[in-house]
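Predict the structure of Pentatricopeptide repeat-containing protein.
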Amino acid sequence: MKSAHKVFWKLPFRDLISWNALISGHSQTECLDEAFKTFRVMQSEQIRPIAVTAASLLSVCALCSVVCHEPVHAGRVQMGWKYFKSMVEDYKLEPQVEHYTCMVDLLGRAGHLNKAYDLIMAMSCVPDDRIWGSLLGSCRAMKSWQNL
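Done. Here is the predicted structure for Pentatricopeptide repeat-containing protein.
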């Protein structure tokens, strides 16, 4: 990622695609704080995020528990909601299944199984096997099958 970072900052013009590539690269290589820092710089340069940007950031919120080997704490859940709501309210992006799946994963890892289920029920699109798999995986991890 260091090489990609150097190349990125040497680009004569950084467009939305290059910003998204860097944010996605940070999230995929588990450079979680760097993903958020990059997003903040992107915003400061007046680059408007798109659906891919939001999915990368929501994934980072959930990834924190896997990478840090600790439960998702309330701060990550709040951060996830913040980005999800900002995507809709500030940037007028319509949430897709990928965004909902990231939020269900985040809520499930934090033990908020009922909130995850309620989100699925309130979705503006049809839930698919990925989103149900995420919820069921969280139920299994939390050993909570009957409470939904």
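The longest helix spans residues 51-68.
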